[in-house]
Write a structure and sequence with these properties.
2 domains, MFS, MFS_trans_sf, Growth Hormone, Chain: A
């Protein structure tokens, strides 16, 4: 088995490419908003409000849309949210210098960002063989690294040859096209979250108002990803500040960020190429510990060449940790809540990233090493939490596996086994 085998599975190339296209606006929006507003004469105060309005709205909207997908199926929620999100980008493009319109557009674009990531992760068990599921999640994790390199580069290129506003129009178009490709795929049209069964176990409690958060193991896993995101956010600020303090670094902070992203891609590919025998819960805390260790060289604040190596090393651990966590979330989420569970991961990771960036930003002017401590602290705490919760995670994961094969359908059986979404 391997990546080529996964990519040759029916619908995989279509769903993966559609998801990446539809998710490209997420990698474009922050810089596109800033450039478009500044080009329209808006002050930094408005930029400082509009970008967080997008991020906060996305954090709120993700779990809500995920729950709607679990209740209504994928096509209607994906297409409806894509249309509204595109309207938000259109508002931003039409009047970027008007505060009320810009804020409303950013809030709409974030709140209704189509939940393509959670939907794809809910589909993987239906479109690849069980023995390839780990590789599929690793491929998913690796592909996400591309977005946050390609998105800013695309905006910069468009702004250089045209206008930043054009990037907002492109974001609207990419979101619609990518979502349409995914929502009309047979796997998405036939997918439906399994109905919760009776009883008091994890499978029978999924559709309460807490949804997937009824699983204690899942809550602890998600909290760990607040710390993981915290480290990523702190690292971003550290790299920018380090580059300003060391102007001899070629390419500045962008070089360090690109090295970390490239290493993350390689790390995910390596993780997916291995046939793991350890339980998913064990792999997850072990990958978190590995990521924590990979961040520690940042504390040394070496010279430019050494920092480039430290940046690459720090990037190796994130994507494998995400790949392991994707599979563990699928195991821990109560029946009928898997899409919402994946949406919570996106939300809490993004929240952690914002908190880590803000915290590092408050200390970096007085202490570059303080920002490095912020970057390392989040993932260290996450690894400690996952290690402490390893028994609970293993028990809940094992209990979910013992429920039978109701959570998973073989690809060849999916069209017959799943009723069309209502």
């Amino acid at each position: 088995m391997g990546y080529l085998s996964v990519l040759r599975s029916p619908q995989v190339a279509r769903l993966l490419s559609g998801t990446l296209t539809g998710r490209l606006p997420a990698g474009m929006t922050a810089i596109a908003i800033a450039l478009a507003l500044r080009a329209a004469g808006a002050g930094y105060a408005l930029v400082g409000l509009t970008s967080p309005a997008y991020a906060v709205s996305a954090a709120v909207g993700g779990p809500v849309l995920g729950r709607l997908v679990d209740r209504l199926g994928q096509p209607r929620v994906l297409l409806g949210s894509a249309v509204v999100a595109s309207l938000g980008y259109v508002l931003l493009a039409l009047a970027p210098g008007t505060a009320a319109v810009a804020l409303a557009g950013a809030a709409l674009a974030g709140l209704c960002m189509p939940p393509l990531e959670p939907c794809l992760r809910a589909l993987w068990p239906d479109i690849v063989a069980e023995q390839e599921l780990e590789t599929a999640y690793a491929l998913d994790s690796a592909s996400q690294q591309i977005l946050y390199v390609a998105g800013p580069l695309l905006v910069a290129g468009v702004a250089a040859v045209g206008s930043p506003v054009t990037a907002l129009w492109l974001a609207a178009g990419f979101g619609l096209v990518g979502t349409l490709v995914v929502a009309t795929a047979p796997a998405a049209r036939t997918w439906r979250a399994p109905a919760p069964v009776g009883g008091g176990g994890a499978a029978g409690r999924g559709r309460g108002w807490l949804g997937p958060l009824r699983s204690r193991g899942l809550v602890l896993l998600l909290l760990a990803f607040v710390g993981t995101g915290w480290s990523v956010g702190g690292q971003n600020i550290l790299f920018v500040a380090y580059a300003q303090a060391r102007p001899s670094l070629p390419g500045g902070g962008g070089t360090l960020l690109a090295l970390a992203a490239l290493a993350g891609l390689l790390g995910a590919l390596a993780y997916g190429a291995v046939r793991w025998t350890a339980p998913t819960a064990t792999r997850t805390w072990a990958m978190a510990a590995g990521m924590a260790v990979s961040y520690l060289p940042l504390l040394a604040l070496p010279g430019p060449l050494g920092m480039a190596g430290a940046a690459a090393l720090s990037g190796l651990g994130l994507a494998p940790l995400l790949a392991a966590a994707f599979l563990l979330i699928a195991e821990l989420a109560p029946e009928g809540t898997v899409t919402e569970a994946f949406a919570w991961l996106v939300t809490l990771f993004s929240t952690g990233t914002a908190l880590g960036s803000a915290t590092a930003g408050t200390v970096v002017d007085s202490s570059l090493r303080g920002a490095a401590l912020v970057a390392c602290g989040g993932i260290v705490l996450a690894a400690v939490l996952l290690f402490a919760a390893r028994g609970l995670l293993a028990r809940e994961s094992t209990a979910a596996s013992g429920l039978g094969d109701t959570r998973r359908r073989e690809p060849a059986e999916a069209p017959a086994a799943v009723q069309p979404a209502a």
